[in-house]
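Example 3.2
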Amino acid sequence: MVIINDVTLRDGEQTAGVAFNAEEKIAIACALSASGVRELEVGIPILGPEEREIIRAIAGLGLSSKLMVWGRMRQEDLLASLGCGADIVNLSIPVSDIQIEHKLCRDRNWVLRAITRHVREAREYGMEVSVGGEDASRADPDFLFRVMETAQEAGARRFRFADTLGLLDPFHTFDRIRRLREASDLEIEMHAHDDLGLAAANTLAAVLAGASHANTTVNGLGERAGNAPLEEVVMGLRHLYGMETGIDARRFPEISALVSEASGRPIPANKSIVGDSVFSHEAGIHVDGLLKNLSNYQNFDPAEVGREHRLVLGKHSGSKSVMEAYSRLGITLTEFEAKSILQRIRDHAVLHKKTPASQDLERFYLEASSCMMVS
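Structure, written as tokens:
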């Protein structure tokens, strides 16, 4: 079983303009843990006393999820992580030549020495360690092997492969992770960014290639274009590959709404899995197919994610949709009556840019009935 390590409370909060308060962080942590997410990255201790207090508060809840904190591969970050109650510390360090040279102003040997020193120090303090390979997707593959070997020798249990700029595709992701899997028995965690819209696909590819852990965020929050969305990764693994994560997907709507409210980021109506419109149907041919047999236009049962199908009347509706909508109002229409009302519905949708409400439908029925009586 692949383990989801959700990073909404760390990388998700790094979304420009997003800041969770203590109450919101605790509520999100509780909701994710209750849904069955096995690991949570809950904060950055070096940010200060308030951040550490929130992390300790989450740790004190006794959640079923393991807790991770994030820090740079520096002694001050490691020391700030001590006493927070987390199970694992992720110590991050650039591993691509461009960042080693132009961000750290160091060389590869310095990186390897830093990993040895700080991982050993963390282990001496009793912390489990994940080594975060920042910008791993642009790193020399041979150097990544050395990084992982050095990390393991120092006592790390996991290597986080970060596609920091979101520049990979699923094919290259699979190849990179497969090679790392063959070269090391460390846990491998995929951390994908969505700059090209491929974070979820790259995460699935990494899991297929042997990654044991996957980072996600609720609603795909995260820096720039965000991270791999929790809901997409979980449902993709289940329905494409028959792989379970132990997460109750029926809780996605409430978790999604909670994070949307706390982040101030509305959920796009067409956002897969949790968007308001993703199980809504207007086109007449689709509605007719659904009414005959759900499998005609149903990839998976929306009840799996706490949702249900919703039939919407609009410009592209057909008479079957109209008859179904009126039956829910307790009005049985003939085919002739439905066709008579249909044009009114289409005109309304074009004029008002929205589906008619119940009172509109009742008015259309009365108007159509009056016209038929006159004729």
